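Hello again,

I reread your note about wanting to compare the complex against the isolated chains. To keep things tidy I'm splitting this into two emails, and this first one only covers the full assembly. Below are the input lines as submitted, including protein chains and any nucleic acid or small-molecule components. They are followed by the predicted structure of everything together. The single-chain runs will come separately.
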Amino acid sequence: MVKFFSDTWKSRYLIITWAKYNIESNYLEAKLGGLWIVLQPIVEALIYATVFGLILARKPRGDAPFVLFFLSGMVMWNFFSSALVRSATLMNSKINTISQIKFPNQTLVFVFLLEKFVDFVIAFIVLLSFNAFLGLFPSIAFIYIPIILFMFFIFTSGVMFTLATLGVFIQDIAQITGLALRFLLYFSGVLISSDMVPEKVANLLNLNPLFFMIESFRNVVLYAETPNILLLMIWMIISIVFLFVGIFIFLKNDGVFADYQ
Amino acid sequence: MKPSPIIVVENVTKYYNRRPQMVRRKDQRLLDFLVNWFLRSGREAPFLVLDNINLNIYPGEIVGLVGSNGSGKSTFLRVLTGISRPTKGRIEIRGEYRELFALAAGFNMDLSGRKNIYLYAAMKYIPNHVIEEKIDSIIEFSGLADFIDDPVKTYSSGMRSRLGFSIIVNTLPDIIFIDEALSPGDEAFREKCNRTLLQLKEEGKTIVLVSHSLATLRHLCTRVVWLNMGKVVMDGPALKIINRYKTFQDERNKLG
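Full-complex prediction:
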């Protein structure tokens, strides 16, 4: 476990370089280039805003327009789902490198995480500019953003390590992840908030770490409300446990990935 | 007195759980996996790939590994380099090493040759200023100057092995592992590789080589280890072992 962290730290240059190369080849070669990172969350938020706002005629609380309500949720959700959806196939897709060069295999997970993090930062900036455009500026509650995000990234990487390991041995994990994400979207706080549902349901939804994280994030960004500190601490601890369990599962199998080429 | 070995292999044994390559498709279905996992049924017996291997390799040796397909040569090299973990036993490598495996050499196919050089360096913790110094000689040695900014997927297998070999010999390791990686190169480049390897040996570097070309092994190696069914059959001076291996092969071929 100690070696895991020291190797990862020694590989920081590798992780950054690799992620940079991947981003370059993903975006710079597309016709619209880096614009896609910005366009994607906006278009998605517009779709949901249209469907829920016009067709179902529902409105979020306060003055926040529906587009921002969704955009703030989508910024978080997109990071989570895009990171997870490829986790299960991550090791298989790089099996050539794993089975032919000795290097710390966990860097593959971190490289992918970093790529998604860059997307996230750009989407976050888009969100803040939209907010500013509509007269919403960062409040004092923003000091909670780093804490919420830290927890969110820790949680996501824990799940990623678990899925990346299982995906090597069980091909179905990729399909299961896809379906589970579909399902989770509706219970994750992207499309609903606590005040839209009865209190009992809201309490239940808060048992989902994603729901809690996304709602806390939105409450800070759109409503300048501080999150529930007790829940924040509990989920922080659970997220850290998740990360260590994920790393443990990964390390337990690290020496046999190359056998599954 | 013998010098102390640079590579120590003690009682190394490796099992593949269910011969992953062979039964992968079947086993990767979730239901099969769960059923097997719960029943722990010995439907597929663990497959022994390396059977209690003991070996000391000394600085300045060029060791060739021979054996028929499936004898465990490549697995042994993977275990030596730490890419794959042995089930039992201990491996100690006292020095920096580079490895080069056949076909893709672990390259990222979508990235250019130049970017692959930087990535390889980062994977081996080679500091940036060192690789900046070396990159011109790596590119020159490979003879790929005109293609170095093209994606590696556009390279032929010979070009890939040129690039791979050029990276590993130009980054100053103590030990080099090569698995059948030079055969795609053309005659001229192979000749150049052989000269380089012999020169590295003169400098006291250690080389472990897997090859089916007995001529190459005869030309390069000081020592040959013959593997069969994961066991060391014979280990000794290159010419002697190669001749014995050749006799064995010829007789087996006669039997058909």
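For quick reference: The radius of gyration of chain A is 19 Å.

B.
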